[in-house]
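Protein modeling request. Please complete all fields; requests missing the sequence field cannot be processed.
Requester role: graduate student
Desired output: 3D structure, token encoding
Chains: 1
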Amino acid sequence: MEKPNLNLTEERERLLSFLFRKRKIILSFSLFVTVLVFGLSYLITPLYLSSAIVFPAASSSVSFSESRNVKASSMDFGEEEQAEQLVQILQSAQIKDRIVEKYNLMEHYNIDKNDEFKYDKLNTAFEGHFSFERTRFGSIKIDVLDRDPKLAAEMANEVVSLIDTVKNSIIRKRTLPAFEITKRKKEHLENEIEAISKEMKRLTGLGVVAVNVRSRLYQALVDSKNPQEKAQLKAKIEVNNTYGSTFDGLERERNEKIIKLEDFKVAYEQAESDAATIFSHKFVVQKAVVADRKDQPKRIILTLIAAIGSFVFIVFCLLILERYKELKLKS
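Delivered output (331 residues):
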């Protein structure tokens, strides 16, 4: 056990001795790279960060069902599923395209419109300046970096406002066709009821009466003493015998369709509400404000990384060079 420990101690002493002998080269190189990186950091365009925070709202709609508590639903914060949906909407092409068009980001990011890969460069630049992520509290943080602090804040708030616009647009693409189908079915029922009512009105004009009145015609015929009245009653009875069953069938059909229409009106009103109502799908916790200090570059961090990286790099290179010399002497 003593021999390995002895070898390890010797290796450490050799390494320290090597570093001491090469200290001037190591320190000179590390200092040069550190100063160079620190100087170059002033050439990097400073970027300002503006952040907005939103909570997703629970999915809700105006309900015509008495069993549903709409107020509670509209006041609830969304859970994990709604948060994931919101992130997907924020990352969608609809929001990106609207922001790019409104703020002319192609020109703002100095991308040549004739460039063969302009859209790829635009996507890369957009992803580098815009980020959307869930926080551990279930909210969504919207970060926008830009060289113009006012523009960064404006674009972040514009993204927040576009959430409802884009989501409502997506929802309407589904609810509008459903509403149109429901509307056509309702109008078809109303037209059928109107046609039946017209036919019943025509039969009523011929003298056909409701079934509960029809049974009294025979009693009226028996009780009547006037020959002219008897003739009229016989004619009326004959008409009712001919068309009475048709009238009764139409009446039953109309009543059934009226009941069906009343039930269908609830579905129609729900579909109309879903297609026409504009909801807010978010709770804005924090609006983006204009930053008064740059976020990037962080010169201290860059300088520290440069110092450590250059030290490790030069030591590694010197060790390889030293080892190469030893192997060359042995050969």
